[in-house]
Amino acid sequence: MTVSTRQGTVADIPAIFELVKELAVYERALNQVSNNVEKMTRDYNEKLYDFFVAESDSKIIGLSLYYFRYSTWKGKRLYMEDIIVTESMRGNGIGKILFDATVAAAKQTGCTGMLWQVLDWNTSAVGFYRKYGTNFDNEWINCSLDF
Predict the structure, then answer these.
(1) Is-catalytic flag, 129?
(2) pTM for the full predicted model
(3) Separation CA 16–CA 11 (nearest Å)
(4) Is 60 helix (H, G, I), strand (E, B) or coil?
(5) Mind listing the domains of the chain with CATH numbers?
(6) Of 26, 49, 79, 129, which residue is the catalytic one?
């Protein structure tokens, strides 16, 4: 199996939205997805996010979606919103390829670091991130407002 990664394009959005829905099913939260291809396309065109895709046999099998944020203490940071590999392809190193591409993008764009979240029950993902020497924060509480 040959896997390649590349920067995503607007033409990839329908395929990556399918991965987003697959992740939502995995996280038992499909009913919480209110996004759609049209919104993602508009937001991509407004440069609110960027992404890498992983492909095999010209089919998108993985995604790393990220955007930039700013910390008053640290400066420019890359926030990786999601890294998704389609279920049938997990365990083949595709997540590592996508994660490494995202780390490289953070470094190349002058970021002082990278942030993301992982569900505590997703032990395979937690184990994956531990291999990178990830700092896990037990102090901060995630907060959100939905509109």
Answers:
(1) yes
(2) 0.90
(3) 10
(4) strand
(5) 3-131 (3.40.630.30)
(6) 129
